[in-house]
Design brief:
The N terminus is likely disordered. The longest helix has 19 residues. By secondary structure, the protein is an alpha+beta fold. The relative contact order is 0.20. Strands 1, 2, 3, 4, 5, 6 and 7 form a seven-stranded antiparallel beta sheet that branches. It is globular.
């Protein structure tokens, strides 16, 4: 006896999707890859404001989507245009703990290069570096939504506010 269900191509396709989806779901380690979907914007804003106040930071502040850019040394020349390559030195740390999670200094001070606005880096970098010129030094205070969001990445916990001390070495 044949079932008419298996003679329909869409039925086979649906069955395959269910099987493959079930296999993938059973392989996923949900305790290691849980995405936090809460809105931390108010908390992040308060953390950044408290950090600025506690460290008596001065310079040019630009609030964009909850991000603060403090230019500690102005650069010269034009700001990068979308898809232009920027080379920079940086140190990334967690706010407010100050724990460093990455640095070009740990790799022989070799500048890191990326295309601005091309989505190759976290959104906070695309926003921050688009405001800087060659020679600029700045502190980028990045709320979690413009960093890694609700995903933990290596030593960076989910929903982390990030600080990057950056220096623009070149724009091409």
């Amino acid at each position: 006896m044949q079932f008419s269900f298996f003679r329909r191509p869409m039925a086979w396709f649906s069955l395959c999707l269910l099987v493959v989806g079930g296999l993938l779901a059973s392989c996923q380690k949900t305790d290691e890859f849980t995405i936090d979907t809460k809105d931390y914007s108010a908390r992040d804003k308060q953390i950044i404001e408290d950090f600025i106040r506690a460290n008596n930071l001065t310079g040019t502040r630009l609030d964009t989507l909850g991000m603060t850019i403090i230019e500690t040394k102005p650069g010269t020349g034009a700001r990068p245009k979308r898809n232009q390559s920027v080379s920079a030195l940086y140190t990334g740390s967690l706010v407010p703990s100050g724990n460093v999670f990455d640095s070009t200094g740990s790799r022989g001070d070799q500048p890191f290069s990326f295309a601005v606005g091309a989505g190759q880096v976290i959104p906070g970098w695309d926003i921050g570096f688009s405001t800087l010129r060659v020679g600029s030094k700045a502190i980028l205070l990045i709320p979690s939504a413009l960093g890694y969001g609700g995903r933990p990445v290596g030593p960076i916990p989910s929903a982390s506010v990030l600080r990057f001390d950056v220096e623009v070495k070149n724009i091409q």
